[in-house]
Amino acid sequence: EAKERGKNGYMFFNAELSRRLSRKLDIETSLRRAAEAGELSLFYQPQIRLSDGCCIGMEALMRWSHPVLGQVPPSEFIAVAEETGLILPIGRWALEEACRQMGEWRSSGLAPRRIAVNLSLRQLHDPHLTEWISNLLERYGIDPGALELEVTESTAMSDGDLVVLRMRELKRLGVSLSIDDFGTGYASLSHLSQFPLDRLKIDRSFVRELAVGLNREPIVAAIVAMAGHLQLETIAEGVESDAQADFLRMIGCKEAQGHKYSQPLPAEAATEWLTARIAAEQAAAGADPMDA
Ligand code: C2E
Ligand code: MG
Ligand code: MG
Ligand code: MG
């Protein structure tokens, strides 16, 4: 009987493995034409200044709606795109679409201070990246400081020298740079200080464990303090509760992003969100401070 189970287990493994491989192949094949087919889109998630609740940025997050597979999560297709090199064309598409949207928001007076776009390792290896971004900013009339590029901690650590060089090149262009998912990798302080960074994004896995009795608060407070010593701003990702936001504000974290404020929104909904937000901010600014 044990033998039978083993055999079944083995067969199950094979079936599961082949299902996964075929899904991966499906994704790879259809990702090639996803951009041209108009299946890719960007969602935008607001970034909030904790001191006054103002929206200071939007992070662009890629979405893929596959005609048969439906919504494929970025955690799945970005990995395939990185493996196959398809991240180069779709990553450029995302950068351009984000800048185009920012230009549109700018002309309707809705633009937040910055737009953040995720960059992956392959893109940083592209020797034409900086020049291409420079042209892009010019084309859409975006101030370089209004573009923030997010590079994950593991990307930053994976290939030391080239990534440092590329980031210095990008910094000379005037764009803003942040380390995404900070705290999940093994960045050493000396390594971090080589990068011309503006901000650390504290990973959601830490934020999730705040204010729930797990005693993770000292770790996050230490990250924020360390960032301060390195002259870096901090933004917390995945903030869902008032208690998390209150704690982050108290320890000096300047900004937050998460479901507490808004989920990532499709462009049209993000535009509505910005419209409502700006009206509310203007009403608050115009109100008598004694009434507050
Ligand atoms: P990320 O850059 O760290 O983005 C944050 C992720 O956390 C997003 O997942 C967002 O939807 C999610 N999130 C934000 N707030 C909350 C919250 O309060 N609770 C929970 N549970 N989740 C929250 P998403 O959109 O699925 O993206 C996953 C990852 O895919 C991103 O992580 C990023 O690494 C990658 N990605 C997305 N778009 C792009 C892109 O255009 N280029 C590249 N290279 N990578 C991208
Ligand atoms: Mg990000
Ligand atoms: Mg992140
Ligand atoms: Mg993340």
Automatic annotation (TrEMBL):
In the complete protein, the residues contained here run: 518 to 809 of 813
Specify the signal sequence span. none
The identity of this protein, by name, is: Bifunctional diguanylate cyclase/phosphodiesterase
The UniProt record lists the EAL domain at 24-278
**What are the coiled-coil residue ranges?**
none
Origin superkingdom? Bacteria
